[in-house]
Amino acid sequence: MSFYSHSLSITLFALFLMSFTLHAHGGRVAYNHDAEAHGRPTLSLAGFVASPTFWFQSLQNWQSELLSVGALVVLSIFLRERGSAQSKPVDAANDETGT
Question: DSSP per residue over the chain, as a string?
């Protein structure tokens, strides 16, 4: 029951970690490919995450902002947090709340 009570937060945090990790990996591969083509040294994953290139790409990525807003809207319809003023009690039966 504790997992379901915090399912929205858990899901959104997992989506954030997944997108952050995929962006770091994909960005490093592209950066290293370009670096090799121009004779520059390549970066490790940690080196790429610490680079200004990674953070510039992350902060300029407007699509991820639209995705996060969409995820908040859609997931908040289906998932609830315990104690949220906007939803019925998580552990209440449907016949108690009418839904």
Answer: -HHHHTHHHHHHHHHHHHHHHHHHHHHHHHHHHHHHHTTPPP--HHHHHTSHHHHHHHHH-HHHHHHHHHHHHHHHHH---TT-TTS--TT--HHHHT-
- Rounded alpha-carbon distances, angstroms, from residue 16 to 10, 65, 67: 10, 11, 11
Q: For 59-62, which contacts have Cβ atoms below 8 Å and span 24 or more sequence positions?
A: 61/23
Tokens of 51: 């680079």
Q: Mean pLDDT in runs of 10 for the chain (99 residues)?
A: 78 86 94 96 96 87 75 73 62 67
- Integer Cα distance of 69 and 43 in angstroms: 32
**90 vs 6: CA distance, rounded Å:** 10
Token pair of 18 as six digits: 């997944």
